[in-house]
Structure formats: structure tokens, C-alpha cells
Amino acid sequence: MHHTSHKVEIIFIVLAIFALWNAASNFFSVKRVLIGRPMRTSELNAQKNKLIWFIALPILSADLYSSVAYGPEAGMTELAGLGPSAKWLIVPITFSTIFLLIILILSYIMGILAYPNGGGSYAIAKDNFKEKWVALLASSSLLVDYILTVSVSVSAAVEAVSSAYPVVAPFETILAILCIVILLVINLRGVAESAKIFAWPTIGFMTCMLVLVFTGLLNESHLGFVQKNTPPFGSIPKGLSNLLLLKAFSSACSALTGIETISNSVPVFRDPKPKSAIKTYIALGIITSITLIGFGYHLYVQGISPNVHNTMLSQLAAIYFGHGIFYQIIIWFTFLVLVLAANSTFTGFSQLAAIVAEDGFLPRALTHRGDRLGYSNGIIVLASTASILIITFHAHTNALIPLYAIGVFLSFTIAQIGLVKRWKREKGPHWKTKLMINAVGALVTSAVAFIFGVTKFTSGAWIVLLIIPILIFLSLKVYRHYEEVTNELKIDIHTIHPEESQVISLVLVSGVHHLVNTTLSFAKGISDHPIAIYVGFDDQSIERMEAEWKEWGSPCRLVTIKSRYRSVLQPLTRFLRLIEEKKPDQAQVQVIIPQFISKKWWHNLLHNHMALFLRVWLMRNKNIIITMVPYHLKQ
Amino acid sequence: MHHTSHKVEIIFIVLAIFALWNAASNFFSVKRVLIGRPMRTSELNAQKNKLIWFIALPILSADLYSSVAYGPEAGMTELAGLGPSAKWLIVPITFSTIFLLIILILSYIMGILAYPNGGGSYAIAKDNFKEKWVALLASSSLLVDYILTVSVSVSAAVEAVSSAYPVVAPFETILAILCIVILLVINLRGVAESAKIFAWPTIGFMTCMLVLVFTGLLNESHLGFVQKNTPPFGSIPKGLSNLLLLKAFSSACSALTGIETISNSVPVFRDPKPKSAIKTYIALGIITSITLIGFGYHLYVQGISPNVHNTMLSQLAAIYFGHGIFYQIIIWFTFLVLVLAANSTFTGFSQLAAIVAEDGFLPRALTHRGDRLGYSNGIIVLASTASILIITFHAHTNALIPLYAIGVFLSFTIAQIGLVKRWKREKGPHWKTKLMINAVGALVTSAVAFIFGVTKFTSGAWIVLLIIPILIFLSLKVYRHYEEVTNELKIDIHTIHPEESQVISLVLVSGVHHLVNTTLSFAKGISDHPIAIYVGFDDQSIERMEAEWKEWGSPCRLVTIKSRYRSVLQPLTRFLRLIEEKKPDQAQVQVIIPQFISKKWWHNLLHNHMALFLRVWLMRNKNIIITMVPYHLKQ
């Protein structure tokens, strides 16, 4: 009991430290060490920071290819209740998944041909639908989906390791947060460098999977395609309904999430971008198909059933290789590839958020590139929200795996319909074939999205279907706010010019000392008749101040105010209201506040923060100009 | 497991909300409702807010009298290992406790006679010792002790209830925090009003205890003074050592903590203050002695042993009254009186902290009286630190009970020695008797403090003995800082006068719009030659800005700076360094920053906080005057 609480406290502390660090770290060298030297904007388009297609392949495909590890299993889990006679269904389900994969890849290649400068579902929807909400539906679905991907992938990765090594089980949440922090730092360093770090593990996992498939083939060529555990083929199991089959199919389709990453990331490729992207798509399609067919068929031949404590991948690997070194390698590459799936999402999320923010639908801060040219704010937003999800669910987010496919397939559908509209409008070479491909794509993806929404509604899909409209609504409100502010600030450049204002300058004084002297020197420099204001809590202090002022030779007019309630703010605001009522219409009121700046942080505790407090309150509640005169304490 | 984490999270959230509320709530009506209308400083000395002695008695004695509930038990627990033949020792131990009580009360009455305007150990030490650290030793011991008292009393109160009703056991921490929040609100309302709320429960507990003692006497007059469970008297148990006896005695002395409250609180009494305070001391001494003798003797007659799950008080009450309604009443009054012990500490802590802060040894903020004339900051500091202790120890702080007596007895000793020095110096009527009383007091309390420190050193006393010197050290550093700042700020009023400064005014502009227009109007009002500064991230934006500026008729000189690293701060500071190098020695540099003020809090997310960020950085790192021109967005 105590242990868990401490764990949560540690997480809170770590997050708090990190938040503070991020908020104010621009000037600490730790940031330089972790993030690297700042980069010039002109380095953005340098070819050397762009990706060659066969390095982009492993980086951008981690999200899709890692799903191979759980997609077929998710499908078979739905049919587990029907007994061994349903096991053969993995073969047709895998084939229909691959069929869907091919349709999707073809559709996305059409997308790249139509938008060679890159553009995911959002850009396509924006270009082809007049209604703003359609594009926002695409972007909101994807953004929600990206957040879910990070939490789910990282949690799954940590769980994979903790199933192999139960000793780390109590630290799952902390480890998952640690993974996210590492991903955060790496992504703040920038995309090109991540490439070099991240290409190899995915290549490793791909190799593992291909070795596994090849080993299976060898095994079957020696022992035959029907082995002692191979279930019967083609029998219709009792209790099989169309709904159940659809559920199994849609769950298996979760293996296809992440396919949009390449098309969203066209700008990160080396020239010629569209051709590189298409090459990557084709290569990825071939590798994924081979893996899926081989993996699915070997699962059938060995008659493997889904098991909560032992993944089907782990079971198959154990049959071929035992629990030796190669089994360990597969487990660790599964871990790495799931973490990389989360990583590819960082680029995707921050770029999409920046594009949508550029259009005024999200806070503009998301368009700012950080020191290392990544969209730092988007990267930080993703890391934080994913961390909150992980903490809330204590890193047990597997239940969410099937859910996040809804968002993806919704955005797939919008993109396909948008492309159909485009081909119809723009025509061009082979437009009818292209239109046909995208029409089929739209049909299939909308069917899958619909099946997902219906079959998973009660088990959590409703959350996603609730959050997406809320996000669309908020995006539209953000857009309206920016539009209104722009209109409010607009001036006619030819008729309105800055006229010299009459400025009434008030100086808050707390006695006669060095800081007041400096502040009055400044006030006299900018105003002919500054007025000093002193707020006292009793008659004695006011009399003392007036006497001292006189002795000082009355450097300017002094107004003393007695505060019977020991508050500076209330008498001051009453006085300011009086001045505002009497001043000419065009005159501006300026309050000059002297402020100590302590040398050591703990000295801040020793000084009155009236200056700070007054500034915040006056800025928020009054139309008054605030000037702070700093005095840096030597002690 | 999940449950606990949520509990901790809830506490964090509650604390965070509370902290925010406190920081910024001056202007929300919720504070008015909870705390009440603000009071004038002149209401401070009104007699109607002062306490009559017999109302002060229950309020100021809750701390001491509540210890009766656990003092004898704490002593007997030390001897539990010796078996039934040690049970009779409760009688001599109780008598020696009462002997100590009488000596302490006499010494404190001497203290009031010497310092009729009130003054606890700190005031006495300050007046009689030249060395600052002696007074600080007294104040630090007491302040640490007050914090421990609040956490221990509140935790014990909650545990009392949760032993009677196990259903609340999982919520102990939250309930303890809730108690502290309630005490906090009540104390922020002010001391006189707390009086009316808090007098009755203590009176109730006293009545309960006296009824219990009287019932015991009746019981013994019927059934005899030797009953079936009465252990033998006077036998020396095997294994009894002097060290063990000292340990038992010192633990029993924890019943005497809180005795200093009355002498520290003389100013809250109605006139004549010293006489009222002395009356209260005598009455309290009589009631406490009767209770302790009766309670201790009945425990012996009934042969009750200490039991972790059932207090000796609860056992004795159950023998006389069964588990019926009167037993329930005793349990609940025990709860209330322990909470009240915490309450009397709030007044004590905040007043002592204010006195020490007035002398410059603690942050001055502790001397500020809040709206309701209580020392709000001290009250808030006490509530927060006690809450942190409770959260850290999950409301299981009983182990700390014997520890906090060290601080008290240390400060007792210092006060007694101080008084001895004073009688020797000042003489006056009966000075030799008074000196004798305080000399005996000093001897006894120093012996108890020494016994505590030695016998409890390994079980936690070392923490207290470590923290107190640290506090003394910090207090001396605080004092030095205030002294140095005062010297640094001091000016010769006859030779130094504010001379009109030459001011260089720079205006940050981000384009040509309404806010820039207002800001430039102001700048022209205070400066003949303001300079506008524009920081652009690329050549296009700079060219566009320059063209627009020209079209606007160049209202003042415009300097454009290109930032290759997308940062405004770095090129700006480079530019400022240039200006600082070239400016005349006496000239001051002013940066004028226009700032949006959003209407709704969430709109803050949509705007760039460059203005805020720049202000914080420049204030902290440069000797530059910052002016903020607010623009309140209508949307």
C-alpha cells in the first residue's frame, strides 16, 4: 500500500520537475547537453537531414509493422470461445487483412500522386471538402489516435518485458513513463538524428519475423503441412455468427494501423520525395504481406490458441527455438519495435498538429519549431497526454488496443472520399482507374470503421466517438477566436497613426531608500510631474513618511493613503479609479513599481511580493500601464 | 493498490486547489463566505475580542489536558515487558508527573509575573541572554514542536475514531487532511470567534474525565480498594533497571506538553491580563492533578495493561460503563479534544512565528495580519507543513508522540535559566523565593530533556536534535540577509536626491495593428525618440514589416533583427547589450512590451506568451526597466 503511494508520488515529482525544467530551461546547459546545439531555420531543408527511402522504411513503418505482433492474435481472441474447430479461420482472416492492406497501400499511393508535397487525410479533406468539420474530423481522429498509440505501444512494450521478467512488474508505470521521457528527449533532438538511432531495431525485428517465417517453412517442408496439432480445415464451428466473424475481422485489422505514417511524412524524404515514398510503400507492403501470411499460416499448422499470459508470437517462437537466445532476441525486439511505434507517432503527431494549427484550428504555439527544428510543443503535448493516460490506467492499456483503430479508419475513409472527389474534378491521366481504386478504398475502410464502431461500442468505442466531436467543436471555437482577435486588432493603416499620449505617471514608494531614488530618477526622466504614492497601515507610519519626504526635499508630489484593512491593493484601486474618472479621455495612466530581484532563490521567501501581486492584478483588471523598475540585490 | 494511488492523487489535487485558492483568492467571494468580512486594525485591541479566563481555560488547555489521555499509557507501555508485578509503578510515576506539573506551573507563574505583557520561552531568552542562538534555540524547538503537535494530535484523533469504526480506516489520511483544512479555515476567521466554537468540547472532555474519576471512587468505596485484578503493591519486578524507570518516567511526562500555551498567550486574555492568566494556570493545575491521580490510581486498582488496539482509557471506561452511550461519548470527546489540541497550537505557532519574524529571524511575511487579524501566513505555513507530515507518514504518526516532548522541555529549560538570571539581576520583592522556584524548575526540566534525548535518541529523537540546529542556522542567515539589504538600500538623505535620468525607450512590435498603435502612442507620450524593434524569423517577414511600416508613415525609427534560431530572446539580448555598451553611464534603458490580456482563461492557451517570458527573463537577468502595455481582448 505504501509502496504504490510512493510510486505515484515519485511520478508526480518527476513530472513536476520535468514540467518546470521545460518551462524555464532555455538557459540551462542541461538542455544543450540533452537536446544538442540549436539549429538554424535554413538547416530545415538541407538534404543531409532528409531520409533515404530504405532508412525511412524501418523508421516510418515501426507503427504498422509492430502491429503484426498483435493483430492476428486480436482477431483469434474473438473466436477463442468456439473451440479448436474455429482455428482454421485464421487463414481466411489473414488473407482478408492482406487484401485490405493492398487496397490501402494502393489508395495511399494515389494520395501521394495527387499530393506530391505530402498531405495526410487532413490535407486531402481540406482540399476537397468545403465544410471545415470534415477536415477537422480527419485531424481530430488522427490526433486522438496518435495519443492512444503512444500510451498503448509503450504500455504493451513494458508489459512484454515484465511478462518475461516478473521482477519488474511493480515498476511498470514508472518504466513506461521513463520510456516516454526518453522518446521525448530523442524527439526534441530532431527527426534526422532519431533516424540513425531508430532504424536498426526495426530492421532487427523485421529480420526476426522473416527468420521465423522461413524457419516455419523449413519445419513444414521436413515435417509436412499437416502436423500432430494442425486443426481440421474448412469445418463450420458451432455458434459462428456473422457478427462474430465481423468482430474477429475488425480486430485483426488493428494490424493495419500506422499505414498512414508514410503518406503524412512525405516531406521528410530525400528528393524525389513522392517516388521515395511510393517505393517505401511498396517495399513495406511486400514485407508485411509475407510476414502476415507466413506467421498466420504457421500459427494454423501448429494449432496455437491465444493465451493471456503468453502471446501467440512467443508460443510459436518457443516451438521453433525453445526458450533460448533467439527467443530472448525476439522478445526484446518486440519491446523495441513497440517503443519505436510510439516514436514514429511523435513525428506524425507534431507535424499534423502544426499543419492544423497553421490553419488556425489549434493553438499557434504548436507551429513553433524548437531549437532542433522539431515542433517541440506538439512533442511535449503528446508526451504529457500519453503520460497522463498511462498514469491513469497504471500502464494497463491493452484493453484500448482495438479502440484506437476507429479513429484511423475514420480518417482513412475521409481521405478516400476526398480523393474520389478530386479525381472527378481534376481528371488527369488514368483518372478513372485512380478514382476506382479510391472508391473501393472508401467503401472498404468505411465498412471497417462502421463494423468497429458497432461491435466495439460498449467496450470503449463510445469514448473515442465522444471525444472526437468535442475536439472538432473546440477546434472551431479556436478558429473563431483567432478570427475575431484579428478583426479586433485590424486598423486602417492610412487613417490611424500613433498620437503622442498624455501620460499620468504614479510611483509606488515604500520609504526613502536607494531603490526609491533610482525609481524616481527614472520617473522624472519620462514625466514632468510624477506623483509618488505611499500606502500606510497606521497614522504613525504615514506621519513618519511625510516627515522624511520633506527632509528629502520633496523630490515630487507625495500622496499618502491610509489602509485600515492592511491591504495595499484596495486603497490603491480606489485611488486609481478616482484618477481614471478625472483624467482626460485620451490620457493613459502608468503605475511605476520598484521591485527587488533576489540573488538566491530562497531570498525570494524573505521579501514581500506585493509588487508582483499588484502587477498581476492591475494588468488583469485595469487598463493601466505597468512599469517595473528592478533592483538587483547584491546580497 | 489502485485505491491507495487514487487516494494520494486526490490529496495532491485537493492541496493544489487549496494552494491556488490561497494564492489568488483575495478577490473571490468564497473567501468572504469562509473567512468573514475583513476587520480594521483598530479592532485588534477591542476588549470584546479578548478572552475571559474561564473561557480561555478550555481553549488554551486542550493541548495539555488532552495529553492525559495518552501520558500515563505511554509510561506504562515502557514497563509492559516486566509483567504484572510492575503494574503498581503507575502510582509513583503518576505522582512524580504531578510533582513536575506543579513545579512547571509555579515556574510559569513566575514567568508571567516577570513578563506581564506575555512572552514565552523566546521572549524570556531574548531578554536575558546576549547570545542570539539561545533565544533561537527556544523558538526553533517550540516551532518544530507545534508542527509535530498538530500532525500527531490530528492523526491520533482520526485513529481514535477509526479504531471505534474500522470502516473509515482506509480514509485516515484524507480525514486528517480534512480536519486540518477545517482548523485552517476556523483559524483564518480569527481567535475570538474560535473561542466560542472550541470552548465546549474541551469542557465536555473534562467533564467526562472527572465523571470517570468520580465513578471509580464510588466503585472503590463499594467494592474496596483491593479488587480481584488489583496487582500487588511495592514489589520490585525482575529486570527493572534505572534506565527503564527513567524511560517510563520521561514517556509519562509527554502528558505535560502544552503547558506553555497559556504563558505564550497572555495578550489574548481580557484585562487584567497577568491575573487572568495566573488564575487559569492554577485552575488547570488543580483539574489536571485530580484527573491524573484519579485516573492513574483507578488503572492500578483495575490492573489494566497497555494494549495497542484498545487504549487504557477505553478499557477503564468499558469496565465502568460497558460499551454503551457513555463509552461512545468518551471516545468522541477524546477525538474532539485531540483536534482542539491541534487548534490551540495554531494560535501559538502563528503568534510565536510573528514575534520571531518581527525580530528579523524569519520571513517578514509571517508578521502580516490577515483580513481577520490572525497571522494568516503563519497559520497557512503550519497547516501545510503538518499536512505534508501527515501525507508522508500516512496519518500513522503515533510513533512521534514521545519525540515532540524534547523540544518542549528544551525550551522550558531555557526559559527557567533565563528567569533565574533575571531575578538575580533585577531582584524585587521575594526575589530569592522566585529564583529558587525557577532554579528547581531549570534543574528538573533540563534533567527531563536530557533523559528524553538519551533514552529516545535512536528511536527518532535524533531527527528533532538535527532539525533544531538547522533552523537556528537558517534563522541567523535570514537575519544577516535582512541586515545586509537594509545597509545596501540606505542612502544619505541629504546628499543623494533623484536626478532626472536620460531614458532610452525601446518598443517591441510584432506588426502594424491596434495594440502596437496604442503602445506607440504611450511611448511617444513619455519619450521624444522611441525606437521600435521587430524580430523576424525570415527575410520575407522582415521585408513585409519594413514595407508596412513605411506605408504607415514611419511613426518612429524601426530596427529589424533577423533571428536565425527562431528565438526572440537571443537577438534581443544581443541588441540590448549593444545599447548598454554605447549608452551614457547614467542613462536607463526601458523596454516597452505590448501584451494581450485574454477574457477567458482558456484563451491564454491560444496566445504567444513571449511577452510574459521576456519580462521574467529580462527582469531577472538585466538591469532594464520593463513596461507592459495591456490590451484587454473584447473576445
TrEMBL record, chains A, B:
Superkingdom as given in the UniProt entry: Bacteria
Question: How does the protein's chain sit in the membrane according to the entry?
Answer: Multi-pass membrane protein
Q: Give one Pfam family, short name only.
A: AA_permease_2
| Keywords per UniProt | Membrane, Transmembrane, Transmembrane helix
Task: Give a yes or no for keyword Mitochondrion in this entry.
Answer: no
- State the InterPro entries in the record: AA/rel_permease1, APC_K+_Transporter
Localization, per the record, is: Membrane
> In terms of one coarse class, where is the protein primarily found?
membrane
- List where the protein spans the membrane: 12-30, 51-70, 90-113, 133-158, 164-186, 198-219, 239-259, 280-300, 320-342, 373-395, 401-423, 435-454, 460-479
Extract the PANTHER family matched here. Answer: POTASSIUM TRANSPORTER KIMA
Q: What is the protein name given in its UniProt record?
A: APC family permease
Q: Which organism is it from?
A: Heyndrickxia acidicola
